[in-house]
From TrEMBL, chain A:
Pfam family, one: Beta-prop_WDR41
Function (record text): Non-catalytic component of the C9orf72-SMCR8 complex, a complex that has guanine nucleotide exchange factor (GEF) activity and regulates autophagy. The C9orf72-SMCR8 complex promotes the exchange of GDP to GTP, converting inactive GDP-bound RAB8A and RAB39B into their active GTP-bound form, thereby promoting autophagosome maturation. As part of the C9orf72-SMCR8 complex, stimulates RAB8A and RAB11A GTPase activity in vitro, however WDR42 is shown not be an essential complex component for this function.
PANTHER family: WD REPEAT-CONTAINING PROTEIN 41 (PTHR22805:SF2), WDR41-RELATED (PTHR22805)
Name of the protein in its database record: WD repeat-containing protein 41
Spans of repeat WD: 22-62, 63-111, 302-342
Source organism superkingdom: Eukaryota
Subcellular location: Cytoplasm
Entry keywords, A to Z: Autophagy, Cytoplasm, Repeat, WD repeat
Subunit structure: Component of the C9orf72-SMCR8 complex, at least composed of C9orf72, SMCR8 and WDR41. The complex is formed of two protomers, each individually consisting of one molecule each of C9orf72, SMCR8 and WDR41. The protomers homodimerize via an interaction between C9orf72 (via C-terminus) and SMCR8 (via N-terminus). Within each protomer SMCR8 (via DENN domain) acts as a bridging protein between WDR41 (via C-terminus and N-terminus) and C9orf72 (via C-terminus). The C9orf72-SMCR8 complex associates with the ULK1/ATG1 kinase complex.
InterPro entries registered for this protein in UniProt: WD40/YVTN_repeat-like_dom_sf, WD40_PAC1, WD40_repeat_CS, WD40_repeat_dom_sf, WD40_rpt, WDR41
Main location as per UniProt: cytoplasm
GO cellular component, one term: lysosomal membrane
Gene source species: Xiphorhynchus elegans
Residues annotated as signal peptide: none
Automatic annotation (TrEMBL), chain B:
GO MF, one example: GTPase activator activity
Superkingdom: Eukaryota
Biased composition (Polar residues): 481-494
Record region (Disordered): 479-512
Keyword rRNA-binding among UniProt keywords: no
Keywords: Autophagy, Cytoplasm, Guanine-nucleotide releasing factor
A single Gene Ontology CC term: cytoplasm
GO biological process terms on file: autophagy
Cellular localization per UniProt: Cytoplasm
Encoding gene, per UniProt annotation: Smcr8
Family listed: Belongs to the SMCR8 family.
Record-annotated UDENN FLCN/SMCR8-type domain positions: 48-863
Protein known as: SMCR8 protein
Length: 442, 890
């Protein structure tokens, strides 16, 4: 029997009661990226980029240009106030090219194919109006796709993740190392930039898989063996680290056999998300909420899904969405537990770290702390079943709904049925009025 | 659906009685004699006494210049059909009333023979002795060898039911016109070919003659012409003349006004395909260089060359030669096309007239429900143009423009529009009245005329509408005892109320000279003459109809109050009320929600409420008059088994019967039929799982009648699937038959089912279980009562359709009530709109529990359908609820 919590068919809080299946891709869809309020792009292993209308599900453009699978995608909107806002997207592919597309016309703006290795990540520094490509080296480009500067060859494995830091710095995850680069204006030219390696951080034991900027002062990294490190964004020192927090040995309420079954795969930090207060980590099959102030995990779902969680996102309404290789998307709500500490905590489906059943062996100090701090738990409020294969990623569009992409080549737009229904009514009456069929009776 | 006999039979009975009381009693000779065998329990649908044929048929006759009138063929081509009926005699009768003015020959003042492109004439003819009534369509075909180049033909639709002919006149006329047009097109083509051949012959003859003359000239040195030479010269001159004449004829036939064809929506052929399909054996000629219609000329390209023959000076005596057959007169292709069309006509009008009428009414009503009809009806056949529209031939114009146009044309809009906007004139020529009869009926007749002229107008109008087409004059003639009728002139004078250009002309004499179509109702039986009983039938509807006539141009979905049109007189109001009540009764809403009318802020579409089509109007009342017949017809399966008025849906008709039968069996067998049907109606995909394909398919067929359509395309039903289902399938299909296997693939199938179980209801045909959400509503209980008395599949199908139609109208009201979906004022909170919406559904529409979901789902479909831009497929979306399912067992 699976220990995964199930919710059943009655999901009152689940607003998504309507769906649209967007077909077009012929292979795994790995990336979804938002372009503006109502458009998004999808890309995947078939090398095609699709632009979609998030409201209607209409396919806007089909962008062909890459011959291999797409490895990275980033939106690049012009910050120029004077001219009309143009929306560009940059895509990198295993064919060692990077293409810039115009989202309005659906045309290829420019193509760069001078890379020695596959570009694995792209980052746009909006402030400087440049973008960075990370492969075996780090390149800095301007809008016109002029190569401004590049680093020397770093590793063959290449940069797996990039994140922008304050003071013109970027953090690049290269294998186990985290390298901080600084961009500085070169002395000889106005357009020139230099990129300098400032620091190498070697605190991780294994490959860094995820990298997220929390706020202006902090960023966080997660590694394959489940280390979560919170860094100071200004002086690049380790603020806090949480190692082995997935480890059942520190959780007295977890049965040993679960511990034995854990493999490195199930402890890797697949994805990190954050808001101002917390870092949300997708670790193996579970999701964890790490509070930066308290410097500890405040809530978790050890087995949130049947298999690895691939993507996690925090919604504004204290909800959390996770998607997994098992093909499902789950909606969680972070709730404060209104309970007296003296009462025995029902275990139920929730395996709350530190809040499990009152354990005699639990140390007193920790217990004391628990009494003073609010207690949280993650409650499953809904799940979305639609994909037949791993859900790679999702994109939250607020009122417009949720787009999920999957290895089954499909993108599904999940929508609030009530809202859609009333929108359709509105459209209907607008059309009636437009056709002149509607006249108010006095 | 509307035609469900159970419903119709009991709705209008009281009204019928009232009408009978109000109506001034008709004089004895006008009333229809009671059915003589009524007392013996015989039904009036039994074979009409006196008729010598078993069912309606089509007869083609020719007035042969050699042998006189002769029957050529009948459709169906079966000796049993015409039975002992004397086709020769009847041919004589129908051919003797051909009035068309078809001069061919030398009109005074013209040097050459002139072809006259005469219109066909359409006549209704009766023969009480034979018990036969016929719609007769005369046409002339050109034949170079015939006298005056013309061969008169006629096509007749012969039925034992006079009423049917009168009622269906318009439709018959339209359909026969198509057939005739097809024949004539082929004939023109063949005639042109013949002329060309003849011209070649003549040309060749001329050359030969010329040579001979030259030879003679040379041989002759005597200085004077021999008689032989003179003869030859004369012969040559006559050949020259013939050539000119024939060339002129060719020019004339080519200059046939083709725009006529273009105007009409019926194109008997496509030139390209005509070429391809034309019989290669039929010899044709390359077009000569003289200018001809481009559309016509390329019909005559690349054709084997023709070897000209010498034409003898004296042509053979006309009795020596064999006249061309009809098939030879027309191109083979066109001949077969015509036969197809005639077969089509025969199928279309097969069956009892009341069946045809009901079918037409429901089609007309269905057409008006343009917003909702796609949900449960097969609307594909509605796309086909109805006959009356075809006749008008306004192809590119939209409805409004068309009506507008017709409005301009009509001299007396009120009357004429209700006819379907046909310019018409009525002449009543009551010739054969017996003196004593006149004495008794005359005062009453004139009384009814003078006291209520308005009604009388409609009274007439109602009759004409079934039997007249544009540009035609109707003439009601009594032929056999003609001569008297002077006393009738009084009432006659008051009858032609409709001013018409033709109204003033003299009755008999001028008629024959007018080339316009004329309709003559010839009746030989005094008791059934003059005013057919359908006058009476449509009489009650006179008041009701009138306002609709005013609003006839208000087609399309329109919420505009008709009051604002400035014709807000009392009558209008009354009729509106009436029509609303009528609809209410049909929708079963009215009584349950008395304040429903006030609640509606918008006037509903006039199309939706009332018949604006003449077909529905004219025949609605008759239908209600004869409801008892209909129900009896449904129960007694007479030899005149009704067949669908539309042959295109004959297959679906059979399918319906079968589906209805299967559905009946399903609701009797399965106690959990209700939740299963609820699933379908609320848009939750139902999977029928089973090992046996036949059984699963049968269940799917049975349940398919409950599946609402998502668009105008095929029903979202998949009868048999063997592969695992996917989410996309639930978007496409709402009812799926799924194979259960024990193989590993079968495991995947079941796995997919359990994975997507939240979107599905699963009916296990093998273990007879159903897994689906709970249903506690009332609609489905009415829809599928397992104790129902209905026995026949088609009846049950109609029952289902009528209940589904009620649901549709509820969904329509719900969808198109503005304030149920949008706030009345800007500050109104969303919650109050939601409350109002739920109140409407529950209190106004009287929906209980889960029934709300059904209407909401239908409403979503309506919205989607309405807002969808034409041409754009639109993404199919899947709506679902997070509701728990339950397992039902037998």
């Amino acid at each position: 029997k699976s220990s995964v919590q199930t919710i059943g068919e009655e999901q009152i809080q689940n607003p998504y009661t309507e769906l649209l299946v967007l077909k077009g891709h012929q292979d795994i869809v790995r990336f979804l990226v938002q372009i503006d309020d109502c458009r998004f792009a999808s890309a995947g292993d078939d090398g095609i980029v699709f632009l979609w209308n998030a409201q209607t599900g209409e396919k806007l453009f089909e962008l062909h240009g890459h011959t291999h699978k797409i490895t990275a995608i980033a939106p690049f909107s012009s910050s120029d106030v004077s001219e009309e806002k143009t929306h560009l997207i940059i895509t990198a592919s295993a064919d060692r090219t990077v293409i810039v597309w115009d989202c309005t016309s659906g045309r290829q703006v420019q193509k760069v194919s001078c890379f020695h290795s596959t570009v694995k990540c792209l980052t746009v520094l909006q402030r400087l109006d440049v973008w960075l490509s990370g492969g075996s080296d780090l390149c800095v480009w301007n809008r016109k796709l002029d190569l401004l500067c590049k680093t020397s060859h770093l590793t063959d494995a290449g940069i797996s993740a990039l994140v922008e830091l304050p003071k013109n710095c970027v953090a690049a995850a290269v294998g186990k190392e985290l390298i901080i680069f600084r961009l500085s204006a070169s002395n000889n030219g106005s357009e020139g930039w230099n990129v300098l390696e400032v620091k190498r951080l070697v605190d991780h034991q294994d490959n860094i898989l995820s990298l997220v900027s929390v706020n202006d002062l902090t960023f966080a990294t997660g590694s394959h063996v489940g280390e979560l490190i919170v860094w100071d964004a200004l002086d690049w020192t380790k603020q806090a680290s949480e190692c082995n927090f997935w480890d059942s040995s520190v959780h007295p309420d977890v049965q040993p056999e679960i511990k034995l079954s854990q493999s490195p795969n199930e402890t890797s930090v697949q994805h990190l998300a954050s808001d101002e207060e917390c870092v949300f980590a997708a670790v193996g099959k579970g999701i964890y909420v790490y509070n930066l102030q308290m410097k500890r995990v405040i809530a978790c779902q050890r087995t949130a899904h049947d298999s690895s969680v691939l993507h996690i996102e925090k919604l504004p309404n204290r909800q959390l969405i996770s998607c997994s290789e098992d093909g499902s998307v789950r909606i969680w709500e972070l709730r404060e537990k209104q309970q007296l500490p003296a009462e025995p905590v029902p275990t139920g489906f929730f395996n709350m770290w530190g809040f499990g059943r009152a354990n005699k062996q639990a140390n007193q100090a920790a217990k004391k702390m628990q009494e003073n701090t609010p207690m949280y738990f993650l409650e499953l409020v809904g799940d979305l079943i639609g994909h037949s294969s791993a859900v790679q990623m999702f994109l939250y569009f607020g009122e417009l709904g949720l787009a999920t992409c999957s290895a089954d080549h499909l993108i599904i737009l999940w929508k609030d049925g009530e809202r859609e229904s009333s929108l359709r009514s509105l459209t209907l009456f607008q059309k009636l009025a437009h056709n002149g069929d509607l006249q108010l009776k006095l | 659906m509307i035609s469900a006999p159970d419903v119709v039979a009991f709705t209008r009975e009281e009204e019928l009685e009232d009408d009978l009381y109000r109506e001034p009693p008709l004089p004895e000779e006008y009333s229809v004699p009671l059915f003589p065998f009524a007392g013996q329990g015989a039904n009036p649908w039994a074979k009409v006494a006196g008729s010598k044929f078993t069912r309606d048929f089509i007869l083609i006759s020719e007035f042969s210049e050699q042998v006189g009138p002769q029957p050529l063929l009948t459709i169906p081509d079966d000796a049993k059909v015409s039975g002992t009926f004397d086709l020769n005699y009847f041919s004589l009768r129908i051919m003797s009333v051909d009035y068309q003015a078809s001069f061919v020959g030398h009109p005074p003042g013209s040097a050459y023979p002139k072809l006259n492109f005469v219109e066909d004439s359409k006549v209704v003819l009766g023969d009480s002795k034979e018990g036969a009534f016929a719609y007769v369509h005369h046409l002339t075909l050109y034949d170079l060898e015939a006298r005056g180049f013309v061969r008169p033909f006629c096509m007749a639709y012969i039925s034992a039911d006079e009423h049917k002919i009168m009622q269906q006149f318009q439709e018959l006329s339209t359909e026969f016109s198509k057939a005739s047009e097809c024949l004539k097109t082929g004939n023109r083509k063949a005639f042109a070919n013949e002329l060309e051949k003849k011209l070649k012959d003549l040309d060749y003859t001329r050359t030969v003659l010329h040579n001979e003359t030259e030879v003679q000239k040379k041989a002759n040195d005597k200085g004077y012409y021999t008689t032989q030479a003179i003869e030859k010269a004369n012969e040559l001159a006559s050949v020259e003349k013939l050539i000119i004449e024939h060339q002129d004829l060719l020019r004339q036939i080519r200059s046939y006004p083709y725009r006529k064809l273009k105007e009409s929506e019926f194109h008997p052929y496509e030139p390209e395909c005509a070429l391809d399909r034309a019989d290669p054996g039929c010899d044709q000629h390359p077009a000569p260089s003289d200018p001809a219609e481009p559309g016509e000329t390329h019909l005559y390209t690349h054709i084997p060359s023709y070897t000209p023959k010498l034409i003898k000076a004296k042509s053979a005596k006309c009795f020596d030669k064999k006249l061309k057959t009809l098939e030879e007169l027309c191109d083979v292709y066109f001949f077969t096309q015509t036969l197809d069309q005639l077969h089509h006509i025969e199928r279309t009008f097969r069956g009892d007239v009341c069946y045809l009428l009901t079918e037409q009414i429901s089609r007309a009503l269905l057409k008006q429900q343009s917003v909702t009809n796609f949900l449960f009806e097969d609307v594909s056949f509605l796309d086909e143009k109805p006959p009356e529209k075809q006749y008008r031939g306004c192809q590119g114009l939209d409805q409004d423009a068309m009506d507008g146009k017709c409005l301009e044309e009509s001299l007396t809009p009120k009357v004429v529009i209700s006819l379907g906007s046909y310019k018409s004139s009525v002449e009543c020529v009551p010739i054969k009245m017996e003196q004593e009869m006149e004495d008794s009926e005359e005062p009453k007749m004139s009384e009814s005329v003078t006291s209520e002229p308005q009604e009388n107008l409609d009274y007439l109008d109602a009759d004409i509408k079934g039997s007249i087409s544009s540009g035609e004059s109707i003439e009601v003639l009594g032929t056999e005892k003609s001569g008297s009728g002077l006393t009738k002139s009084e009432s006659q004078a008051s009858l032609p109320v409709i001013p018409s250009p033709q109204a003033g002309r003299s009755k008999v004499g001028s008629r024959r000279t007018v080339s316009e179509d004329s309709i003559e109702v010839l009746s030989t039986c005094p008791s059934e003459s003059l005013i057919p009983e359908d006058f009476k039938a449509s009489y009650p509807s006179a008041i009701n109809e009138e306002p609709y006539v005013d609003n006839d141009d208000e087609r399309g979905l329109r919420f505009a109050p008709r009051l604002s049109a400035g014709v807000a007189d009392e009558q209008d109001d009354i009729s509106k009320q009436e029509s609303l009540v009528q609809v209410d009764a049909a929708c079963c809403i009215g009584k349950e929600s008395p304040n429903f009318l006030e609640l509606l802020p918008y006037e509903l579409d006039s199309r939706y409420l009332s018949g604006s089509r003449e077909v529905s109007k004219s025949s609605l009342d008759e239908c209600s008059d004869s409801t008892s017949y209909i129900s009896s017809a449904a129960s007694t399966c007479s030899d005149r088994t009704p067949s669908p008025a539309h042959p295109a849906c004959q297959a679906t008709e059979r399918h319906r019967k079968r589906a209805g039968q299967n559905a009946l069996r399903f609701i009797r067998q399965y106690p959990f039929a209700h939740p299963a049907i609820y699933s379908l109606l609320s848009g939750r995909t139902l999977v029928v799982l089973g090992e046996d394909e036949a059984m699963v398919k049968k269940l799917v067929t049975a349940l398919s009648i409950f599946v609402p359509n998502c668009g105008v395309y095929a029903k979202p039903v998949k009868h048999w699937v063997t592969s695992p289902l996917h989410l996309v399938d639930f978007q496409k299909w709402k009812l799926i038959g799924l194979q259960r296997t024990v193989s590993p693939a079968g495991v995947n199938v079941l796995h997919a089912l359990s994975r997507y179980s939240r979107y599905l209801s699963i009916l296990d045909a093998d273990s007879k279980t159903l897994r689906c959400p709970l249903y506690k509503g009332t609609v489905v209980a009415r829809l599928a009562d397992h104790r129902t008395q209905i026995k026949r599949g088609s009846t049950y199908y109609m029952h289902v359709q009528s209940i589904l139609t009620q649901l549709c109208s509820k969904a329509f009201l719900f969808t198109f009530c503005h304030h149920l979906h949008l706030p009345i004022s800007e500050r109104e909170p969303e919650e109050s709109v939601v409350n109002r919406r739920m109140n409407f559904l529950k209190l106004q529409l009287g929906l209980a529990n889960e029934d709300v979901k059904i209407v909401q789902y239908l409403a979503e479909l309506l919205k989607l359908h309405y807002i969808q831009e034409p041409g754009q497929g639109g993404n199919p979306l899947l709506r679902f609820d997070y509701v728990p399912s339950f397992l039902y067992k037998i």
